[in-house]
Amino acid sequence: MAVPAVAIDDADPDDTSFTFTAGELRSLRDEMQRFLLGYRFGMQEIETKISILREEFLQTHDYNPIEHVSSRLKSTDSLLEKVQRKGVDADLPSIRENITDIAGVRITCSFVADVYRLFDLLSEQDDIRVLNVKDYIAEPKSNGYKSLHAILEVPVFLSTGRIEVPVEVQFRTIAMDFWASLEHKIYYKYDRQVPGALLDSLKDAADTAAELDTRMERLHREIRGATPTPATGVIRL
């Protein structure tokens, strides 16, 4: 199904945009809603997996590495705006192939080691396929942004059969999440035209947040007596 630009029936006759009747617009809306429904279910599958891990940690390990979980699904308007900005063909198969962040889940962890541990626990489940990973913790963005981004494909079973749904999962520490929230508010306030001095302050704050993560994790290891595994350096609690 193509998703062309929409024009009102009484628009300028010289306009080359497609026009639709009320019935066609309803059909287009219904098709997009069905398309997005699969992503909603995929997002919920990831949330369920995280909820199970969280409950297990609380019940059996006396430690919970998951501080907070949030999720979001792109609206139709937001999705179509991104399709246009990226130059993606306006049909559902092309959108499915090229836009991988329609559904998103963010997991906020206590420490950096927890980030990698949660990623491993999710990605090693046999019904999940890792499509892409961007480790902005190991290699932060130039402005100081840190997070682990992964596109995880999860199966969803509908009445019409099985579909594979990509979900963007972001893993952050509390400090990374606090910094990213502040950065988002600043970029929104200045309509992305942020003064250089403020950008420098943001970068300094990111460095301070990273130092805090390191110090707090060191204290945590001392308290719990955890040691890093020789192979990966990831803390096993």
From TrEMBL:
Record keyword Oxidoreductase present: no
Xref: Pfam families: RelA_SpoT
InterPro entries (alphabetical): GTP_Pyrophosphokinase, NT_sf, RelA_SpoT
Residues of the RelA/SpoT domain: 71-194
GO biological process annotation, one example: guanosine tetraphosphate metabolic process
Enzyme Commission number(s): 2.7.6.5
An MF annotation (GO) of this entry: kinase activity
The entry's keywords: Kinase, Transferase
Domain of life: Bacteria
Xref: PANTHER family: GTP PYROPHOSPHOKINASE YJBM (PTHR47837), GTP PYROPHOSPHOKINASE YWAC (PTHR47837:SF2)
Protein name (record): Putative GTP pyrophosphokinase
Source species of the chain: Microbacterium thalassium
